[in-house]
# Entry
Amino acid sequence: MTRLAALATAFLFWPLALAAEILMPQQVAPGIWAIVGPATQRDPQNLGNNATFGLIETADGAVLVDPGGSWKGAEALHAVIRGLTNTPVTHVINTGGQDHRWLGNGYWQAQGAHILTSAAAYADQQARGALQLTALNGLIGADNLARTEITRPDVIFANRHDLTLGGTRIEIRHVGPAHTPGDSLVWLPQSGTLFTGDVVYIGRVLGILAVSDSAHWLEAFAEIEALNPTHIVPGHGPTTDLVTAQKDTRDYLSNLRDRMRLYIDEGGDIIGSVEIDQSAFSYLDQFDSLARRNAQTVYEKMEWE
# Structure
């Protein structure tokens, strides 16, 4: 290979290498990892992987919790996984309908992996997929979005799907609607490890969307508390414990809803709703960009509760 050709090849794969470099693996327990993406907006550097993913290694194959936010994002995730294990990824679980929870599916299906998704998540993916692709085109760029497309999962389940692979029991429980209608938990009872998808945010303000249900989100969180996990791998942020998850996610939601209920009962309108006091959570990343938007979205829903 000539020097010019080598430089051209390096330039071609530079975005992929950079995207893999900013994914930080954390070992949770033997054979179990969190792979933590940046707490930023989607951009050409992270290829849509601005979330936390999970990897479960078993004797009969590895299970990936969420596939990455694009085809190239999934490739970057795969590069990190190869540094953790030689075991091939045989199954990929989608924990919801947000783009980084499913738009990398096509890459993994091309590798021979089976995709597992709740029926509610699949419906949400079909409903919002085209809009998500359009948004990603602007955020990460058309070249970085290449080959990313809407695909059909291999297994679509209603409320629960249990998988035992290589002696490891994996329970997938649909608990949405929360952040999205199809949010699911992935529970490993043998190690007490819980992958929460977007039901839990750590270290940054959670996002409340038009499709979110803040009331049921608290019910979904109660299901986490009932499991009393030893290790929590959140949808955003590093591995954590139940106390921290309660503080950063449950308490944020409870505070916002309690204050909004009082504001609505006193006759407050949507314009003033953004001034609801959320200052106790100003320590969370992206507070300034998301808190007021969250308040307005919650007002619009709670006005009709």
